[in-house]
Amino acid sequence: MRYHDYHLESYEVADRGEKITLNLVYGYPGEETDESVITFEEVALYNFVHTTGAIITDIEEESVGSFLGEIAGEVTEWNRMHGVRYWKDGLESYVEGLAEKGFKAWRIESAIGFYGFVVAKRVENA
Fold first, then answer.
1. Among residues 9, 56, 87, 110, which one has the fewest Cβ atoms lying within 10 Å of its Cβ?
2. At what angle do helices 72-82 and 91-100 cross, to 10 degrees?
């Protein structure tokens, strides 16, 4: 995937949250602008914080179990407040169900404030 030092120009949420597209650009004065489009499909959960001015430094794939274990409190609260797709009986069964269905987690980090993640089945880079 092409993303390191690319600016987050925008992101799109489609198909009722089941498709997330990151529109990235790499362009500095005196250089050609390069675009990278990263699309996550069959999204179960995502969260982005501080998107303005983001320069993406890393997109790291992780297992659903280990990643969601780190943010268990937040996910449980999001489910209580808003409902989380695929949630049934609790966090443990949620994580097990996602893993059985082939979901993965991607942690997205930035040099300037942005942080986010996506839990989905697939990712493509165009």
1. 9
2. 100
